[in-house]
Amino acid sequence: MGDSDYMYAFQQVVMPIAQDFDPDLVLVCAGFDAAEGDLIGGCHVTPAGYAHMTHMLMSLADGKVVVCMEGGYNLRSIAVSALAVTRSLMGEQPDRLQSTQPSPSGVDDVQLVLRQQSKFWPCLSPKDPASRLKQLKGERMHDIIREWQSKALFEAHHMIPLFIARNKISKSFEDQVLATSNYSEARPLLLIFHDPPELTGTPDPRTQRLELHNTWLVGPVD
Fold first, then answer.
1. Hey, how many other C-beta atoms are within 10 angstroms of the C-beta on 64?
2. Of 23, 175, 211, 213, which is the most buried if we count CB atoms within 10 A?
3. In whole angstroms, what is the distance from residue 219 CA to residue 192 CA?
4. How far apart are CA 206 and CA 79, in angstroms?
């Protein structure tokens, strides 16, 4: 991770939450583990990157920011990064960043954080559509198809679901273990919707694809 990834995380997650929280004082544990040149940290945040993050934090709490040195693993990286932070605190403009395009893995991580934190912070989006399912009484598509397949296999091959001996088990594990003494080719799957249902889901953060396990159907199904 480098400057662009940290800038993306700050802009999408850190600063919106910080502004919503509206602190009276900002305390920064200034560890420079992610600094460029730190082989143990393994990241690539430049002094300019630290300066920009400091500059953004100074917009909070009327500029009351306390930066406490916490270390790192490379003395030169600590020195040049701490100097850049100090210059920002003194009012100097940060140097220009070489890149502002976050990496694909950085975007994935931030989107996963947004998905979780948006449940608790109104300032964050997108909201996870799955959070509405309790009110809408939705059914996971994976469960609908598994239930239908179980009935179809029983009719065609006399297959029956086997009991799973557990005190508590997710609905998604029902109809997963079937048994029969006969073997033949399974019938194709067909779903018929009498009324237009609502399909909602939580896309995969990397591919943005909706798959059976993260898609829910709200509406009658036969």
1. 12
2. 175
3. 12
4. 36
